[in-house]
Design goal:
Number of strands: 0
Number of helices: 3
Structural class: mainly alpha
Strand content: under 5%
Keywords: Membrane, Transmembrane, Transmembrane helix
Shape: elongated
Oligomer: single chain
Largest sheet: none
InterPro entries: DUF1467
Helix content: 40-55%
Length: 88
Amino acid sequence: MGIVTLLALYFVIWWTVLFAILPIGMRSQIDEDDVILGTAHSAPARFSFARKALWTTLVSAIVLGLFYLVTEVWGVGPGSFPHIIPGT
């Protein structure tokens, strides 16, 4: 697997993990009883993109490492599993 393929996979994994991590630990303005006039009640009270990006980067690196381990080191791929549909 080439470096460009790994970077492309990391990019896709990073964005997928970002959207999985974004809602973790979020508290809305209504949860904090501090609603700012003109904003939605469901808007985050405090948000740190740097912290979310750091967690996303760490989790994405682990996921990519596991993917590399399974596919390149152990050699598990789509051809490793039995065919469910005959003739495929």
